[in-house]
Amino acid sequence: MASRGLYKATDGSWRQAVASKGIPLLYRLKEGERWTLLDGNRAMVVHPSRPPKIVRPDGRVEEIASNADDGSRS
After folding, report:
1. All residues at 6 or more sequence positions from 30 whose CB lies less than 8 Å from its CB, including other chains
2. What is the rounded distance in angstroms from the CA atom of residue 4 to the CA atom of residue 20?
3. Radius of gyration of the chain measured on its C-alpha atoms
């Protein structure tokens, strides 16, 4: 499977492309990751076993901290 990623098109929309097409990607999607639009300036990338990430148009990626109970309460 070819590597996929996200980019911001000239019309301002977020799009997904295959990395080999020569389009500069803001974020390269890893195996199992899916994405959705949060608003016009941010996309969220969700992985089945890792915390979600926010991708911004300038290429910054922020991981969202998980509040899941890890069972380590005292």
Report:
1. 47
2. 9
3. 14
CA distances from 5 to 33, 36, 66 (A): 10, 12, 24
In this model, does residue 68 exceed pLDDT 80? no
Specify which residues 73 forms β-bridges with.
Answer: none
Cβ atoms of 19 and 2 closer than 8 Å:
yes
Per-residue pLDDT at 67: 67
Contact 30, 47 (CB under 8 A): yes
Distant-in-sequence, close-in-space partners of 27: CB < 8 Å, separation ≥ 6: 5, 6, 43, 45, 53, 55, 59, 61
